[in-house]
UniProtKB/TrEMBL annotation:
It comes from Natrialba asiatica (strain ATCC 700177 / DSM 12278 / JCM 9576 / FERM P-10747 / NBRC 102637 / 172P1). Residues 84-106 are annotated as: Disordered. Keywords: Stress response. This is Heat shock protein Hsp20. Residues 41-160 form the SHSP domain. Belongs to the small heat shock protein (HSP20) family. Residues 94-104 have a biased composition (Acidic residues). Pfam families: HSP20 (PF00011). InterPro entries: A-crystallin/Hsp20_dom, HSP20-like_chaperone, Small_HSP. The keyword Amino-acid biosynthesis does not apply. It comes from the Archaea.
């Protein structure tokens, strides 16, 4: 009987190669998550895009907020953590009926009901919260956070 190659001859090599590729992908994914989590403290994924730039004496956070009014947005700074939340609901009358139904509109498709987002980002250095400024223009929220001047005075600390 002639020697025939076994169909299982290369399976060990194939499994070893697959294992190495999975380990490489896992290491790459973990290092990417470490880099992202250093600044982005948001829970879960978010469809709202956010940029953080360092412009010398100011950090600038830019967030896409199309369709949100200034009253729909809440911006808070706690320490070095900036929280931005937006919530937009369907307009309703006091009796609970939809505004569109009041005006006689008949919806064939209605997807723009309730939209909300929440993003938190850690700013790399302390900022001056008193002089922070936020504006919305053409669906883009811009938050300017001036960096806090380092204390030039030294402070003596008593030893107890």
């Amino acid at each position: 009987m002639a020697d025939r190659p076994s169909p299982f001859d290369g399976i060990d090599e194939l499994l070893d190669r697959l294992n190495r590729q999975l380990e490489t992908a896992a290491r790459s994914w973990e290092s990417g998550m470490e880099d992202r989590s250093r600044f982005d403290l948001s829970m879960g994924s978010s469809a709202t895009s956010l940029d953080l730039t360092d412009e010398g004496d100011t950090f600038v956070v830019t967030v896409d907020v199309p369709g949100y009014e200034t009253d729909d947005l809440d911006i808070r700074l706690s320490g070095k953590t900036l929280s931005i939340q937006g919530e937009r609901k369907r307009a309703t009358e006091d009796d609970g009926s939809d505004e569109g139904e009041e005006s006689g509109d008949v919806y064939i498709r209605r997807e723009r009901e309730v939209q909300s987002f929440s993003r938190q980002i850690s700013v790399p250095e302390p900022v001056d919260a008193e002089n922070a400024d936020a504006t919305v223009n053409n669906g883009i929220l811009t938050v300017e956070l001036p960096k806090r001047d380092p204390d030039s005075e030294s402070h003596e600390i008593d030893i107890q």
